[in-house]
Amino acid sequence: MLINTLSLYNYRGYKKADIAFEKGVNFFIGNNGSGKTNLLEAIYFLALAKSYKTTDISTIRSGKEFARISATIFSEKKFEPKIVISKIGKKISINNSEVDKLSDYIGKVQVLAFLPEDMDLIKGPPKNRRYFIDMIIGQIDKNYLLELSNYKNVLRQRNELLKIIAENKTKDFTLLDIYTEQLAKSAEIIIELRKKFVEAINIELIQMHHYLAANSKKVEFKYNPLTEKNILKELKDKYQKDILFRTTGTGPHRDDYDFLIDNTSAQDYASQGEQRVLILAIILSIANIIMKQKNNKPILLLDDVFSELDYLRQNQLVKYLNSSELQSIITSTNIKDINNNFLNNSKMFTVKNHIVKEDGING
Length: 363
Ligand SMILES: Nc1ncnc2c1ncn2[C@@H]1O[C@H](COP(=O)(O)OP(=O)(O)O)[C@@H](O)[C@H]1O
Ligand SMILES: [Mg+2]
Fold this sequence. Notes:
Strand content: 15-25%
Order of helices and strands: EEEHEEEEEHEHHHHEHHEEHHEHEHEE
Number of helices: 12
Bound molecules: adenosine-5'-diphosphate, magnesium ion
CATH topology of the largest domain: Rossmann fold
CATH class of the largest domain: Alpha Beta
CATH architecture of the largest domain: 3-Layer(aba) Sandwich
Distance between the termini: 24 Å
Radius of gyration: 23 Å
Mean pLDDT: 94
């Protein structure tokens, strides 16, 4: 998949922008606050049909009524998605015909992003890891998202019932048994799919990390389900505890993942730079899985990716992206450490006060 052009109108700090990308590596260089992240965020918005971690309307340029993002995308066929965001909602269209169902639209523009927020993937709370992994597996397997939403529904109903039971002190567990059975069944499917994903990613990750880190440290991504065997029994054994706490204490909604570098926990020991290399390796590994399993090529959005990376790792990353079949869009405050050879054929842009200037193709 390729993004050929992007047009913005009243999006964040942009009054108007028209950008033509190259099919390989695209660099956007500019100082802090110049509009680099906003640009990637706009592409992200096109992919997810919503803002990343903020409200949709906060993306409308201050004092304006609406914002517009449109693009030309080359996938199997060329198509032109457009999103108009206004205070009363958003309108999404493809080739000027309006999209009725959001679920039909999502997945049309495929991106994989590395955003500075993703740095809490390793050291942040388990919720961050679950969210990140759930989104990724969902991108590969729509059934996973359906099952997850089913699980969350049953979980919510079960938790409501636990409160009612706790308050009324009823001893009738018939409905609780039913919810528990449904929950256990759904949990098993989710855990299996997570395991399958973790297995697939580890194969890629070892090589990718080896390349980016340019060392021989062995990384491992581990999934630690709270309950794995006989979830139904486990849930049933904990009825009294769940009623006491008025919530379901075990299951995939509480699971966590671990990252190990040479068998030591990255959560406890990895430096900022090491974490960044690891997260980038994870994202690029996921890209490879998507290419292999889905035959799709997601667009890579790498925001402020060089900070905390030393000279060697910055160059390994750019070298990798140059050799990759994927289109990548990278932002940075500077590229002074990048070897000129690796910039050949890359397209360079400068961003200043939310104005993008094309500097042409290097080399
Ligand atoms: N809705 C908005 N209207 C106008 N300006 C905005 C809006 N949202 C963000 N900005 C501006 O965008 C700037 C941040 O741009 P950003 O792309 O994050 O910079 P960077 O180049 O450092 O990544 C801020 O200075 C902010 O004032
Ligand atoms: Mg930024």
